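[step 3/7] fold_predict: job queued, chain A
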Amino acid sequence: MADVILETVITCPYCGHSKEEIMPTNACQFFYECQSCKTLLKPKPGDCCVYCSYGTVKCPPVQKGDCCC
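[step 4/7] structure written:
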């Protein structure tokens, strides 16, 4: 199995601001505040966390084939 990638770039769908983040390995992140426009991002329907919805890389549990729900 490939190594889990912890770095992702999360992009705000409202203003387009992007920021590199390190994802936690022991929990999902359900909310993320954009540093630029201050919008509180929530996961899209069907996604378990904001990284799966707005990041360049899915969260660590999903990468491992698990669900972090």
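[step 5/7] annotate
The longest helix spans residues 50-54.
The two ends are 22 Å apart (CA to CA).
exit 0
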